[in-house]
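Hi W., the uracil complex you wanted:
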Amino acid sequence: MSADVKYHVHLNREMLAGAEVAILPGDPGRVGKTARYLDPEAHFLASNREFTSWLATLDGRQVLVCSTGIGGPSVSICVEELAALGITSFYRIGTTGAIQPDIELPCVIITTGAVRLDGASTHYAPLEYPAVADLELTNSLVAAARELGLPHRVGITAACDTFYPGQERYDTFTGYVPRRFQGSLEEWKHLKVLNYEMESATLFVIASVFGLKAAMVASAIVSRTRSETPDDAVLAQAEENLARVMKRALQLRGTARS
Ligand code: URA
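Structure:
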């Protein structure tokens, strides 16, 4: 590996061709599909561990699509390395579990701030430091969802290191949830938290600390007050909605800036 290639993402500046915007799905399997939705001529760049990347061109601008894997630690590696290669705006796209019972699947959820139930963000700033999304990027996602007529909600997300106990799931090997998390779903519901996911707090804190921009859009694939198992049709629709919102948000932001 040459010296200028970043250790985990296996990318260098030349491969990014001046891209300043990155879309970050968690799942490596979603990277190529997302990139091709933006640009049928998009091409594969690299794949190492959970980090798969493609480069697309949208309205004359390069857009990197790079998976982060699941959870804060791998998000932190991805953002560290991409920031060093010149990425200044990060849009995370992902799936999520809705907490509020009136959220219908696969509602689009745009996060304004995250409850810091992760560990990785505490390695960058103390817990008193807020995990907030960038306003400009967030506004572009809201405008896109509105324009596309997709049902959407905007608000606070609980970002958690674990899918099972931290999100108070009992369908587990032991069926036990430590006391710290017992009743937590009900509490977040009362506190008007919209959803659970696993990466936004880390992403927002790191981006803020670095002076960069980050936003988060997810599609609800389960409604936690009703069921735990996602449906294939809902998953497919969720993926399509995210690609549509993401593409339109980039176009709207590009138009606003040019
Ligand atoms: N991702 C999560 O973190 N939780 C869910 O319930 C669904 C997706």
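The chain is about 30% helix and 25% strand.

W.
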